[in-house]
Amino acid sequence: MRVLYSFVAVLALVLVSFLGGKVTGLQYLLGVVLPYLAFGVFIVGFCNRVIEWSKSPVPFQIPTTCGQGKSLPWIKYNRLESPNNTLEVVGRMILEVCAFRSLFRNTRAEMHDGPKIVYGSSKSLWLFSILFHYSFLIIVLRHLRLFTEPIPFFVPLLEMADGMMQIGAPRLYATDVIFLAAIAFLFSRRIILRHIRYISLPADYFPLFLLFAIGVTGLLMRYYYRVDITAVKQLTAGLASFSPALPAGIHPIFFIHVTLVCALLVYFPFSKLMHMGGIFLSTTRNMANNSRSKRHINPWNDPAIKPHSYAAYEDEFREFMKDADIPVEKE
Amino acid sequence: MAIPKAEELGVSVVREPSLMTGAIPQKEWMDVPAKFMEGDSCYPGKVSIVEYHKFPYPREWNPVDDDWKLPDDWEDIILNGLKERLDKFRTLKVFMDICVRCGACADKCHFFLGTGDPKNMPVLRAELLRSVYRNEFTTAGKLLGKMAGARPLTIEVVKEWFMYAYQCTECRRCSAFCPYGIDTAEVTIILRELLHLVGINTNWILEPCANSNRTGNHMGLQPHTYKDNVSYLCDDIEDITGIHIEPTWNRKGAEILFITPSADVFAEPGIYTAMGYLLLFEHIGLDYTWSTYSSEGGNFGLFTNNEMMKKLNGKMYAEAKRLGVKWILGGECGHMWRVLHQYMDTMNGPADFLEVPQSPITGTVFDNTSSTKMVHISEFTADLIKNNKLKLDPMRNAHRICTFHDSCNPARAMGLLEEPRYIMDHVVPKWYEMPENTIREKTYCCGSGTGLNTGEIMELRMRSGLPRANALKHVEEKFNVNMMSCVCAIDRATLTSMVEYWNPNVEICGISELVGNALVMDGEKEERESGLRFEPLEGMEG
Fold first, then answer.
1. CA distance B183 to B175
2. Predicted local confidence at residue A23, as pLDDT
3. Helix (H) or strand (E) holding B87
4. A319 — contact with chain B (CB < 8 Å)?
């Protein structure tokens, strides 16, 4: 059911935009108005979410240490897994954000007769997550060609590297294939692995379907319908320069693609996709393990909370203490 | 509570259909209410204890009953409490929003491995709260309801929270594996705080808190009894080594205040660890004092709420100030060190009346503690060994084939990994590591931390202790390991129950016991015949 809901939602988006893409009046809506709107929602929504998070203070310094902490000078400490200063924290965060360090640790536990728990290496989630995120990134960067004039120097380089396989014409980009394959993997593990299926929500399937549909419509545009790229660039460049114009003759598939991308942008700030921003604010990763050498301040620390006083303690136990030769303040 | 024999439980954890063993639950988790039977939860706080803390809604109630006798406006209380905490803890806000349910944490939890209960997967444990958060605080949840993974707060949800917030030992193993570092401990800490607001609590946590507040320690030992207990240990030391030790109490002007969990002076095998401390300090002639007022290292406030944690922890600095010591030395304990390392300075600092700790024996300055001014006994001991200040004969531990259990908090909240290992290298002839996935930052909890070390949930504890017991079994079979050392007082108590059940040939000890055993004391008996447990040393069995 949860899978179905998400599938239907994406299908509905496709249908609506397909129909809209055929009507010239609605084309303007889908190709010009919607992208501005969606981009606006994305930027405002994303910033708003991050600001909302930042408004809450970080009362305690609670890094999760995953290696030796700094203590005695002759004990080598792990600068990346148990960072002691800001620079090392930056190193840890780079590893986490760019290489998915923690996910790389992943193992799989199995229960066997005995009882015996057996641990296996389990790097596939890490691998496909890396493949997905990096191919997505490269695809987004490649799209800069449509929005910039002159085109940034790295875009042709990326295109060249990405299209090295030289299969067919136009050249097939490796990232397009990897992107779809990785989504297919991430989707199938949600279906096949029983734990993951049990915890998956519509909010987990929906973005996968949406991203897959975006990828497929993109491929169709490029290789099957051979959408008029000059017209598309005219539209996108117009959008980017805030002088939008809608050239005639763009295939409806383009409008499906654009609508889905807009749906993703709008959906993003209100969903789990915000892990993109959230990881930078994760206090178990972005804090140094130096809490005994540098005092962390809690803005709402309550000075009125005091321990049960020694005076009250001695008042209650003074006689016992004296009998036991334990020194007291008041005889 | 009668619990199944290890042989039976060992079969059922593998064969009973569960999400862990391969079965697929028939119902969606939101449609499975938590049902309480005897043994599923700790006993509620006694009325007198709840009243002592001035906590709300003291009453007789039983989780097994349908009616938990909650206040009429329990719903508002909890939701307002949640709102307040979202504004106070960034962790909570972020962790509510960013989980992608990738499932990397699922099989990392010792409770999930041992019970197979889906709600013991860290991701689902957090969803128990997230679902309510979405319903009340997010646009998507308000508009789409269940479709967005949201559900209203009901009495069933509250009961579910109680069950699963107390089937988490806040060991943070899952947070090491989470790609965003989501820390389930942060979630269950908040859940427990919310439950306290409506009078849902457990006695095994609140009573030690009350004791600690009043008498200075969890065990409720009054000053004279505390001192007596340590004297008995000194008597034993004298019998075993011939050395007479007279520690000082509440002594003003001592250089160092020593604080350890009270369990170390109260029960086996912790007392042997305490004997190790006493011998060590005598050996180096340390100018230190014990305190009866601040006679507890542990802090069950961490398992209650942040206010209680601060209140109980405050005694340490208060006593250090009153006695005019230079710095504080802390004994072996896990959650105690989470509080000392990550919370104490923030809550009760700055400790500007103390000096940056310097070992009076080696001259080493402990720069890593320059603000908190509290040193871990393993750091202190490792430094002594490194500087050749201890006369050690590791062969006195030759009757022990050891392994080392990293306690959750020293491992994942401090990064205290090498110091105990360095000490082990010097006090036992040989020791063996458990498998790689079960030590260091990947270490397993004993299964009974955060105030779950109580008898009424013994089966649950044996299930959650299974992953640790299993790793121990591995080295037991491979290397004949017969002693597992650790640096945690709760471990010393709970692992003892765990090995009695799963690994009956293994014993548990603190590292300082092994140190004490190995120390060659000035003026000791010509020939040491027994270890600190009066057990014969190797070659002395006859």
1. 5
2. 79
3. helix B74-88
4. no
Give B450 or B2, the one with higher predicted confidence: B450
Per-residue model confidence as pLDDT tens digits over A14-71: 888 888 878 777 888 888 999 999 999 999 999 999 999 999 999 999 999 999 999 9
Q: Name residues whose C-beta falls within 8 Å of residue B184's C-beta, 6 or more positions apart in sequence.
A: B105, B109, B122, B125, B126, B168, B170, B172, B174, B175
Predicted ipTM beyond 0.90:
yes
Residue pair B85/B190 in contact by the 8 Å Cβ criterion:
yes
Q: Give residue A25's pLDDT.
A: 77
* DSSP for residue B534: S
* Cβ contact, residue pair A295, B350, below 8 Å: yes
- Taking CA–CA distances from B21, the nearest residue in chain A reads A111
Looking at the partner chain, which of A65, A201, A283 has a beta carbon nearest the beta carbon of B412?
A65
Q: Which of B439, B405, B58 is nearest to A107 (CA)?
A: B439
Tokens encoding B530: 């027994």
**What element of type H or E holds A264?**
helix A252-267
Gap between the Cα atoms of A213 and A261, Å rounded? 9
Q: In this structure, are A250 and A317 located in the same domain?
A: no
- B98 vs A76, A82, A274: nearest CB: A274
Distance between CA atoms of B404 and B531, rounded to whole angstroms?
19
Could you give the CA distance from residue B9 to residue B502 in angstroms, rounded to a whole number?
10
- In this structure, are A220 and A327 located in the same domain? no
Whether A194 sits inside 8 A of B250 (CB atoms) is: no
**Does residue A326 share a domain with residue A221?**
no
Q: Nearest chain A residue to B102 by CA: give it.
A: A196
Q: Which amino acid is at B60?
A: E
Query: Within this chain, do residues A249 and A100 fall inside the same structural domain, yes or no?
Result: yes
| A53, A65, A292: residue with CB nearest B90 | A53
CA A33 – CA A55 distance, rounded (Å): 32
- Asked if the Cβ–Cβ distance from B100 to A289 is below 8 Å, we say no
Structural domain boundaries enclosing A314: 305-331
Tell whether A296 and A309 lie within a shared domain: no
Q: Which residues contact A243 (CB under 8 A, 6 or more apart)?
A: none
Chain A: nearest CA to B36, how far in angstroms? 23
Interchain proximity B94–A282, CB inside 8 Å: yes
Which residue among B22, B369, B441 places its CB closest to the CB of A292? B369
CB contact under 8 A, A57 and B94: no
Q: Tell me the residue type at A55.
A: K
Across the interface, do A102 and B414 touch by the CB < 8 Å criterion?
no
- How far apart, in whole angstroms, are the C-alpha atoms of residue B122 and residue B164? 10
pLDDT digits (tens, 9 = 90+) for B514-525: 999 999 999 998
pLDDT in tens, A220-255: 998 888 888 899 999 999 999 999 988 888 888 999
Question: How do residues B105-125 score in pLDDT, each as one tens digit?
Answer: 999 999 999 999 999 999 999
Q: Which residue of A has its CA nearest to B177?
A: A102
Confidence of residue A192 (pLDDT cuts 50, 70, 90): very high
How many domains is chain A built from? 2
Shared-domain flag, residues A327 and A183: no
Domain ranges across chain B: 18-201, 208-518
Judged by CB atoms closer than 8 Å, whether chains meet at B368 and A193 is answered as no
Q: What is the pLDDT of residue B1?
A: 56
Please give the biggest Cα pair distance in chain B. 81
Assess whether A264 and A318 both reside in one domain. no
Tell me how crowded residue B81 is: count the other CB atoms within 10 A of its CB: 17
Which residues on A lie below 8 Å from B189 (Cβ)?
none
Q: Which residues of B touch A309 (CB under 8 A)?
A: 318
Same-domain pairing of A101 and A183:
yes
